[in-house]
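May I ask for a protein sequence together with how it folds?
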Amino acid sequence: MKKLYLSLIFTVISFSAFAQDTIYMDNKYQELDNKKNAEYFKIITPTPDEDYEFLRTLHYLDGQIKSKETYDLENDKEINEGEHTYWYDTGELFYNIDFKNGKKHGDLIAYWKNGNKRRHDVFKRDQFKNGKVWNQDGKEIEHFNYFIRPEFPGGLATLSKYIKLNIQMPSEHNSTHRVVVNFTVDTDGSIIDIKIKEDAPSKYTAEAYRVIKEMPKWKPAKRFGEIIKISYSLPLVFQK
């Protein structure tokens, strides 16, 4: 018992010595100034002796781990490296996925909560090569992509056409402005949580907001065959 106690103390001391930054987050993974209203916290640790520059772990407030990701920084942009690991909210291992130079490169292996393998995909430089999928009972089923992006009805070409037909140029428009709008495609395809990410004069941002808000429902995203809500960014350019 004494050895166990000393081992735990050493682990805490070591962890504290290397943990560089603890950041609290809300249920939408937005960073907060303090613990109030937080659902998660993430810890970012420099890793100079590893094959990657930083380790980021995401935790529930009780300390249970949710994800572990490793990455490099290039011009303030995160480049995924190495194996990333994710857990279910009940603590079971969910899946691992390998990255190299920011691209999926290697294995993606997922598990059901009962421990049975859920899927095994192989990627090379972000390209899917082969894979298998199993149900909870371990029976192999027809393969499908592990992640399917949300889609405007009819696809990107139809989305571009919709915007061109519906956007209204502000009066006295005599210059080019770019407005980036961030929004969430909900599980029923509804557009929610609209935010202006890259600003412009108010008459342009107001029009960009209106066009996005009035869009028809999208086809929602899927992850591992389950419908999820997901953030999406869309740039709108007002040209003179």
Residues 1-19 have pLDDT under 50 and may be disordered. The first strand starts at residue 21 and ends at 25. The first helix runs from residue 2 to 18.
